[in-house]
Amino acid sequence: MKFLVGFDGGPSSKRALALAREQAKQSGALVYVATSMEGGHKEELKDIETAEERLQWAKDFLLQESIQCDTIQLARGLSPGEDIVKFAEDNGIDLIFLGIEKKSRTRKILLGSTAQYIILKGPCPVITTK
Fold first, then answer.
1. Which domains are delineated in the chain?
2. Cβ distance 61 to 108 under 8 Å?
């Protein structure tokens, strides 16, 4: 089995990572941890380094339990939702884990909902945690 965790380093994504770790211990799944950045001139070196540090933290968290894992920093010019869905499609992911946070209606209208996009467009089941 292959799991994918959408990870931004926030509390809800850490809970999703912990849930994926528990499921992977039971199933022996390979866990991919991915973060999405727009890439190109919109990214600053500091943002890239922060993302790399967060991914290393996630990898260390999984390796503490001897979970087979890989981290990916996606920067393909897509939205985070599109990046996660495309990665899942391209890599035969069996299950996606996401941390979600409550947003006001106005914030959803202005920013959209990454989790909603992944849930509706994802090629496999999606487990969310808050």
1. 8-103+117-129 (3.40.50.620)
2. no
Phi-psi region of 9 (alpha: psi -120 to 50; beta: other; left: phi over 0): left
* CA distances (Å), origin 51, targets 76, 103, 128, 129: 15, 23, 21, 21
Cβ pair 60, 17 in contact under 8 A: no
Inter-residue contact 33 to 72 (CB < 8 Å) = yes
Residue with token string 């914030």: 107
pLDDT digits (tens, 9 = 90+) for 34-78: 999 876 566 678 888 999 999 999 999 999 999 999 999 998 888
pTM of the full structure? 0.90
